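CORE FACILITY INTAKE
Project code: CF-77B
Contact: R.S. (postdoc)
Sample description: multi-component assembly, two entities in total
Requested service: structural model of the whole complex
Turnaround: standard
Below are the sequence entries exactly as provided by the requester. Do not edit them.
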Amino acid sequence: MGECSFWDWITDTLHLRDLPFMGAPSLMFNVRYWFGTIAVAALAWQVLTGLILLLYYQPSNAYDSTMAIIHNVPFGSILLSSHLYGAYVMILAAYVHGIDVFLRGTYKKSGGAQWVLGVLLFVLTLGVSFIGYSLTGDVLATDAVDVGKGVLTALGLQSLIPVFFGNGTQLDLFTRLLGWHIIVAAVIILLFMLHYPRVGYRVPAISRNNDLTIKPWWPRNLIFTLAVTLLTWGVILLVPSILAVPQVLGKVPILFSPYPGPSLTSPQASSIPAYPPWFFLFLYKMVDMPFGLTVNAVMGIVIPLVVLLIIPALDRGGSPHLLDRPWVTALFITGLIWVIELSVWGAVQPGIPVKPTWFAVVIIPPVLVSFGGVYAARRRWIKVKGRIARFTTRGVKFSLSKNTAVALGYSTSMIAIVAITTSFALNPISDGPYVGVMWGIALISLAASLMAYLYVEYL
Amino acid sequence: MAGGGVDEGRRNFLKAMIIVAGLSVFVGMLRGLEVLVPPKVGLEEFPRLLLVDERGNPIKASSIPVNGRQIALFPYPLNNEPNMLLNLGDENGKPVEVPPITVVIPQNGVSYEFPGGVGPSRSIVAYSAICQHLGCTFPELTFYPPGVKVMTANGPMDKIIYCRCHGSTFDPYRGGAVVTGPTVRPLPAVVLEWDPSTDELYAVKMIGPVIYGHPGFSNPTLDTVKNPTGDLQGGSPAGVATTVVKYYSNPIL
């Protein structure tokens, strides 16, 4: 078998069997466990595209140089819009990853250090995205920076305004934003390196199982990691490219537009509400609350952050089951509902002051529903707890036939080849969004065929 | 459970397909490296620019000092292409008519017609202030007026444009032709127009080799010397309707 010995040769030459990575049991090859990987794949995309953007962005000419990237640089529209959506995907993946870790209660096991690092990474990710969003110098960015200054002032941190936003000139503002964007991104990469190595060893399914299905990292994990990465990059390319297609672009709400908004000096600027980026809408609505800016900012930033950071200290040992830690569960659900409610509210009524009654109507019910629901479920849970086997078979019993998977693998790799071939017929400047769509389809199809292969060969 | 009942031929075919697809996508996206190539900046054609002073007032041809103690520089056609504006004279400070002349490029023998001086005495000329040898600019490359001699490869000389970097010598009275090396190309000349009714000067195009450092400068073909369009690329335009003449003291005086 010539092919086999070729792979063996690669494996031996690169010492792939000796890499200090953990293998995983078959049941772990489920996207649920891979949102951390998705966030990192998005981060890698951000580093790649961000470094290229650095070759074109001019702090002295922020808005015009940004628009020139879209209109004049080959593949520039893909570069810029995928850098924006890469951030969105990273934020969403970080949310889901955090929620997943919370639901599984694994923050108890790591002694809290991983959780705290994770929360810091999340905050820095939101921060670096905010700065990046402001770099375009469009009307939204200008509003976002002004609100940011107001929030810092409200928290008594006005001495930090010149540190982050410069001496007041436009040139210093954008030079500093660019500098901080890169510095914070570098800190994220460093913290991730601390966050990563232990994760492999703390995967709960491994520590609990001496399962024979745990096979070595090479090649199963590599194939899956590669597939997840390509899938992530495909989505990062495909979504903004579809939104950037001329017929679609006009209908995209400004909060999700793949391109910057109008410039501050354009006549259209006055018709656009002072929106922050969508992931800060909840905070933006908190600023409208009727308690004064300082209290609002403390409620919207400081308290949630402190609570998130000290959860592992408050909720230490015991069972990781959600209903065995009812108040933490209820608090977490309440917080999530608040974030969603406030974000939607912020999108619908940006900057409109909130009356106390409305505050009560929106803020109090989630508390009652979450705590009431969780404690009611817990009463039921305590009665049946001992009688349910801890690990029932997970997942759906449906299983794809291997022959079907092979057929899927064939067709998806054909789609990838066709899509990438089509992209060669398109002009990298005038057809940017269509190239992005083709690349997105090619990457997603390739990821699908890799997953089909993994399934046929190793699962 | 490798394969799960799928025969080995089909599995290997799948593997081969994925490798082909992976390589295609990789190669296809390598095309994206074109993102690193910056868009070209510059002009489509030579603009007709009025020469003005720093206040925006047009330069009067008859008021340009003959063999001036100062060197007048203006950018044309792009901002990073400085040119010397000279009103040439003899030892007595009288303007000298600069006749049209055929300039030969020592590098390859190609020649072009220099149109001669303009202005009331046909004594005003303009040449690129970037040396064709290795790109030294004013003040290294400067004009030695009559009576101010410099030691060149041909002995002490005046009435030349001499580059103090490596000793290249050009003759501004004869279309910027090469007097001594190491340069193998003459200085590109700005084609000027003089409006006798207003006494104003216009830069209308370049002639000769492409200005040093711009696309095609090292290869002066018969076509490029007549219309050196490489001058139009690699910088921002010097101006829309005007280009500003600034005076600098001549370092050798």
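Facility notes:
- Residues 49-249 of chain B form a domain with the Rieske Iron-sulfur Protein fold (CATH 2.102.10.10).
- The first strand of chain B starts at residue 49 and ends at 52.
Invoice: internal transfer
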